[in-house]
Amino acid sequence: AGPAAEAGLRAGDVVLRLDGKLLEDPADLIALVRKHAPGSVVSVEYRRGSETRTVSVTLAADAK
User: How far apart, in whole angstroms, are the C-alpha atoms of residue 10 and residue 4?
Assistant: First the structure.
């Protein structure tokens, strides 16, 4: 499982903010993640159904 799954995120969850920064476009998530070094811990605010939750995610290096 990747870092998001380990933090409790599931398929269908909608990521709203990364480290407090509003995501306006799906590409924003990739751009913001790349600004942090692997091993960084970021807060992720997401919506599951009608509920909004926040979790901490430890970023990993790209699997190649």
Answer: 8
